[in-house]
Structures are given as structure tokens and as C-alpha cells.
């Protein structure tokens, strides 16, 4: 009998301990849920507030813009953005389609902006008659524009 | 007797007419068979180089779904010019057998010369093959970009032909060709 009582006591003590643990874990879970829920209500995914199992809202189709007179720069020394489509012009080892209009020889006739003088200077400071190889791939810096709104609203204003 | 002779002559003429139709039809069918894109790119010389480049251009895929295939630009539509071009093509067969441009590298080496041949031919025919589809008369300048409209206006006045400006629009330009040295009306080739 004495042996039985003893084992029952130990069992009860163990159960109490387990209960405490369970309650603690549950409280932590409820708290976490509460905080994540309140946090989620403030943060919105960039893809919008659509359900996971619903189709995301389809973004409007955009095409490359043609802007007469070009696009104003937002800061000094900004590479000017390209105000026309460029898909017909190739830039490869053999040819650079941009230079058909923007080169020293053709810019006047084509009424297009001339490639900047800095683009003829090599990294060693020598000025070449043809465009420097480090400036050869125009679309690394000069980008066409689609007129897309920024995903996150911001207060940025370019220098005037 | 007399009647039989007449019948004989009539049959001969009839056979002649039928044979003529069959032979002529067969000849034209065979010629048309060599006038398809499928036939052109059955040679790897065409398939591996120029056909690959064509696929990136507006003549291959565009808004309206109209496609220009090899013969549309490179073989005249009119019968007599077509025959002349087909006879000239025997030279291409000869070089195919010699393997003159059987690798892409060999082709690139010869490319400037080959391109200049095509440009010269197009210039001489006033871009006849372009004009099967494109005509100044049917161009609505109001629907063109301002720059295009201005330049087309200028081209009409100066009597330029399509290829004067539109080089390398369906295939890549060859190495060593600088468009800046080849402005229409300024530099003569």
C-alpha cells in the first residue's frame, strides 16, 4: 500500500508540472498570434491584399514610352533615360545600333543628343575616336521607361 | 479516210495541250517548292546563322501576326525576275558543294561581302522585294512616329529607296560596317 501511495504522489506531481508547461506554451502561442495578427494588418504585401489561394491582381500591361524632348534628369550626372523604344537596335560585338544616331558623325543629321565626351575616354585617360569599350553597352546605364508607378509611395523629388 | 486524219491531228493537239499543262504545272510546282522557308533552312548554312537572327526581328514576330519568310524578301515575285534569280542561285549550289561557308565562322568572315551583294541588288531594283508589302503610297504618316514620318518625307523628296536606310533590319549587320559612314545622300558606296 505504502509503495502504491508513493507512486501515486509522484505521478500527481508530474502531472502538475506538465500542466504548467502546457499552459505556458499555450499562453506564448496566443501572444504570438496576437502580435503577428496586429503586425500583419499594418504590413501589406507588394502584390496586394489578395488571398493566397486567389489569383493575384493582374498588373496593367505597359509598353515603352516615347517622350518627345526627352526626360529631365533627377540629379546631376545622371545618365539620361531613353525616351524611345530600343528593341530594334542591337548592341553586340560587331555593331552598336545606338551609334547609328548618337555618334559624333551622325547626331547632327539625326537631331539626336551626342554621346557624352567622357564616353570616349579609356580608363587610362586616353581619348579615342571611337567609343570606349567600358561605355560600349549603352543600356547598362541608359534605360527605356515604361511609366510605371513606384511600388512603394515615396517623397523623392529630383533636383530642379 | 479524211475524217480519220483530222481526228489524228486533233488528238495530237489535245495530247500536246495536256502534256503542256502537266509539264508546266510540274515545273512551276517544283520551283515553288524551292521557294519556301522550309527549303531555305534545310541547309544548315541558312538555318544556323541568318535564320536565327531573323527570329528576333519584327519581320518574324509582331503585333499583327504577319510574317515575312526568306523568299518574301530574297526572291522576286514577278515570274521573269524570279526565273533569273533562280538561275543565279546555281552559283549558291556550287558554293554549297564547295563548302565555302559551311561553318558560322566562315560565314561571319564573308558576311560583309555577302551583305553588300544583297544591298547592291536591292538598291538596283529600287528595293523591289520590300515594296511587295511596303509602299510610300499606302503609308499613313500620321500613324508613324514623328521621326519616322519626317525621314520618310525626306526620303520621298530625295528619291531614296528602302535599303538606303533600312540595312540590318532582318539580320545582324556585318562586322566592319559603320552606318555612320553610309548615310543616304552623303556617302556614296
Automatic annotation (TrEMBL), chain A:
<dbReference type="GO" id="GO:0042597">
    <property type="term" value="C:periplasmic space"/>
</dbReference>
<feature type="binding site" description="covalent">
    <location>
        <position position="138"/>
    </location>
    <ligand>
        <name>heme c 2</name>
    </ligand>
</feature>
<keyword id="KW-0732">Signal</keyword>
<protein>
    <recommendedName>
        <fullName>Periplasmic nitrate reductase, electron transfer subunit</fullName>
    </recommendedName>
</protein>
<feature type="binding site" description="axial binding residue">
    <location>
        <position position="102"/>
    </location>
    <ligand>
        <name>heme c 1</name>
    </ligand>
</feature>
<feature type="binding site" description="covalent">
    <location>
        <position position="98"/>
    </location>
    <ligand>
        <name>heme c 1</name>
    </ligand>
</feature>
<dbReference type="GO" id="GO:0009061">
    <property type="term" value="P:anaerobic respiration"/>
</dbReference>
<keyword id="KW-0813">Transport</keyword>
<comment type="similarity">
    <text>Belongs to the NapB family.</text>
</comment>
<keyword id="KW-0349">Heme</keyword>
<keyword id="KW-0408">Iron</keyword>
<comment type="function">
    <text>Electron transfer subunit of the periplasmic nitrate reductase complex NapAB.</text>
</comment>
<keyword id="KW-0574">Periplasm</keyword>
<feature type="binding site" description="covalent">
    <location>
        <position position="101"/>
    </location>
    <ligand>
        <name>heme c 1</name>
    </ligand>
</feature>
<dbReference type="GO" id="GO:0046872">
    <property type="term" value="F:metal ion binding"/>
</dbReference>
<keyword id="KW-0249">Electron transport</keyword>
<dbReference type="Pfam" id="PF03892">
    <property type="entry name" value="NapB"/>
</dbReference>
<feature type="binding site" description="axial binding residue">
    <location>
        <position position="119"/>
    </location>
    <ligand>
        <name>heme c 2</name>
    </ligand>
</feature>
<keyword id="KW-0479">Metal-binding</keyword>
<dbReference type="InterPro" id="IPR005591">
    <property type="entry name" value="NapB"/>
</dbReference>
<comment type="subunit">
    <text>Component of the periplasmic nitrate reductase NapAB complex composed of NapA and NapB.</text>
</comment>
<dbReference type="InterPro" id="IPR036280">
    <property type="entry name" value="Multihaem_cyt_sf"/>
</dbReference>
Automatic annotation (TrEMBL), chain B:
<feature type="binding site" description="axial binding residue">
    <location>
        <position position="74"/>
    </location>
    <ligand>
        <name>heme 2</name>
    </ligand>
</feature>
<keyword id="KW-0813">Transport</keyword>
<protein>
    <recommendedName>
        <fullName>Cytochrome c-type protein</fullName>
    </recommendedName>
</protein>
<dbReference type="InterPro" id="IPR024717">
    <property type="entry name" value="NapC/NirT/NrfH"/>
</dbReference>
<dbReference type="GO" id="GO:0020037">
    <property type="term" value="F:heme binding"/>
</dbReference>
<feature type="binding site" description="axial binding residue">
    <location>
        <position position="171"/>
    </location>
    <ligand>
        <name>heme 2</name>
    </ligand>
</feature>
<feature type="binding site" description="covalent">
    <location>
        <position position="133"/>
    </location>
    <ligand>
        <name>heme 3</name>
    </ligand>
</feature>
<keyword id="KW-0472">Membrane</keyword>
<feature type="transmembrane region" description="Helical">
    <location>
        <begin position="7"/>
        <end position="27"/>
    </location>
</feature>
<feature type="binding site" description="axial binding residue">
    <location>
        <position position="46"/>
    </location>
    <ligand>
        <name>heme 1</name>
    </ligand>
</feature>
<feature type="domain" description="NapC/NirT cytochrome c N-terminal">
    <location>
        <begin position="6"/>
        <end position="175"/>
    </location>
</feature>
<feature type="binding site" description="covalent">
    <location>
        <position position="43"/>
    </location>
    <ligand>
        <name>heme 1</name>
    </ligand>
</feature>
<feature type="binding site" description="axial binding residue">
    <location>
        <position position="134"/>
    </location>
    <ligand>
        <name>heme 3</name>
    </ligand>
</feature>
<keyword id="KW-1003">Cell membrane</keyword>
<keyword id="KW-0249">Electron transport</keyword>
<comment type="similarity">
    <text>Belongs to the NapC/NirT/NrfH family.</text>
</comment>
<dbReference type="InterPro" id="IPR038266">
    <property type="entry name" value="NapC/NirT_cytc_sf"/>
</dbReference>
<keyword id="KW-0812">Transmembrane</keyword>
<dbReference type="Pfam" id="PF03264">
    <property type="entry name" value="Cytochrom_NNT"/>
</dbReference>
<dbReference type="InterPro" id="IPR036280">
    <property type="entry name" value="Multihaem_cyt_sf"/>
</dbReference>
<dbReference type="GO" id="GO:0005886">
    <property type="term" value="C:plasma membrane"/>
</dbReference>
<dbReference type="GO" id="GO:0046872">
    <property type="term" value="F:metal ion binding"/>
</dbReference>
